[in-house]
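Help! Submission page says 'invalid entity' but I think these are all valid:
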Amino acid sequence: MLIHDLTAVLSAFLASLVEVVEAFTIVLAVGVTSGWRPALLGTGAGLAVLTVLIGVLGPLLNAVPLEAMQGVIGLLLLLFGMRWLRKAVLRAAGRIPLHDEEAAFAKERKLLAGRPGFAAGTVAFQGVLLEGIEVVFIVIAVGTGRGLLGAASLGAAAAAVLVLAAGFVLHRPLSLVPENTLKFIVGVMLSAFGTFWLGESVGAAWPGADFSLLPMALGFLFAAIIGVRIAEARI
Amino acid sequence: MSVLRALWEELLGLFVDDGSLAAAILVVVGLVAVLRDTGVVGGPVGGGLLFGGLVLILLENVRRSARR
């Protein structure tokens, strides 16, 4: 159980860190360009919609049988994790550009120039809502099924607090966060998590039960490193 | 309306970026499920096939994407 707890907290923390940094960049751009009132109102509205979403989804998830839940969540985790891992591999190999928080900030500011307060507020609202949806999914995906929603929520909350604290102090985009490295690690962890759960739901057996997660994650990491070499060499 | 569309696209984009990657994952998962369901392979072999298949899918997709 401990290995699942740690994986859930760490996955939720690292993945949420990436998403919260992106949301923070948008809100900061709105605040600096159009004023803090629309930025904070948009953020508050986004968080309110997310809270309603969690309130509706939570009881629905409890009604789904555990076995069905493991299969569905395992598949979604696998699709999500492998997508991140693929992108991180291609970025690490220089085949697609790295995400640049400073560039994203400049782009948002350019788009916001001349927009009235309400329109700027909707940009903050949309940014918080869309990135927040990803955080909600990550928390639900790594936390549901084994009673780890609390642990996963803790990881996501810690990421939000860390980003907000750093943003409050620095007052600029958090471009030093190594986004691709985080995506690489989270991609590996979620791919392993998803494979494990999905495997259980389709009748596959894992030697060592929960402890097979570690060698599986190492296997995905090794494969991803080979993938970087393949992409670099364009074999 | 544009918020709803963006929301839907964001949700879909969470899982499907390169359609061929998602499709290949579904094929491997389906194949292992059928092999296990019909008793053709045992539990540990099914696990090995699932893990090995997914690793191969990742490597093949990365190789193909890098050559584009």
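Support: the input was valid. A stray whitespace character was the problem, and the output above is from the cleaned input. The first helix of chain B runs from residue 2 to 15.
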